[in-house]
UniProtKB/TrEMBL annotation:
<dbReference type="InterPro" id="IPR027383">
    <property type="entry name" value="Znf_put"/>
</dbReference>
<keyword id="KW-0804">Transcription</keyword>
<keyword id="KW-0472">Membrane</keyword>
<keyword id="KW-0812">Transmembrane</keyword>
<dbReference type="Pfam" id="PF13490">
    <property type="entry name" value="zf-HC2"/>
</dbReference>
<feature type="domain" description="Putative zinc-finger">
    <location>
        <begin position="8"/>
        <end position="35"/>
    </location>
</feature>
<keyword id="KW-0805">Transcription regulation</keyword>
<dbReference type="InterPro" id="IPR041916">
    <property type="entry name" value="Anti_sigma_zinc_sf"/>
</dbReference>
<protein>
    <submittedName>
        <fullName>RNA polymerase subunit sigma</fullName>
    </submittedName>
</protein>
<keyword id="KW-1133">Transmembrane helix</keyword>
<feature type="transmembrane region" description="Helical">
    <location>
        <begin position="95"/>
        <end position="115"/>
    </location>
</feature>
Amino acid sequence: MPSEHETVGAYALGILDDAEATAFEAHLAGCEWCAQQLDELAGMEPMLAALADLPGSGSTPAIGESLSAKPSPRLVEKLVDEVAEKRAQKRRRSFYMIAAAAALIIAGPLAAVAVNGGSDGGGQVTATPAQATFRTMSDKKSATDASTHVSATVAVARKDWGTQAVLELKNVKGPLKCSLVLVAKNGQRVTMSSWSVPDWGYGIPDAKTEQSKQPLYIGGAAAFQPNEIDHFEVVTFEGKKLVQVDA
């Protein structure tokens, strides 16, 4: 890395002499990397200045005196590296969250059973992309809750950004608002998708209409890898767990 790049931390802290500052500013005019680093480090100098104004107390040396001393070049370099790494980690986390959100948006149109006709459950059922995707996914886990009798199968696929999932839900009646929740091994909970269950329900074996007999297929996504997942839960918006599927 050119030596001018290593000066950005010292410039941000205001410890360059006039000649050094002038030379760095000339370099800064044509260096996008240094401009970005300077923007990220811009808050450090005012923070140190504010701390330097604090008075000392008792026999303890004045805080202002210790903070106003110019740090060594090695310390400045270490500060820059630490801030840059923290920023990079934040950007990586943001990328994974954006990727998962994008996948969820893409999965949205795959979510529910498509119906031609009215909203009373009597329409003609047509296959959906979510159902087709579900059939192609080989990693599937199923469970039926002994109390609610709701059945669920969760199909998952590993992605670079996390996990894609498609839920098949059966024997659930509405009206309900529900979510598919991923529970990670570290205890974190992530909502992968949410939907409404109409009065006539989904996957009801003895239903009077074909629509009500069909399961619900809905897609979702999360930033966790499959090996980081403990289980999935289908829960109502009121917090009632309808069924749990172990990963």
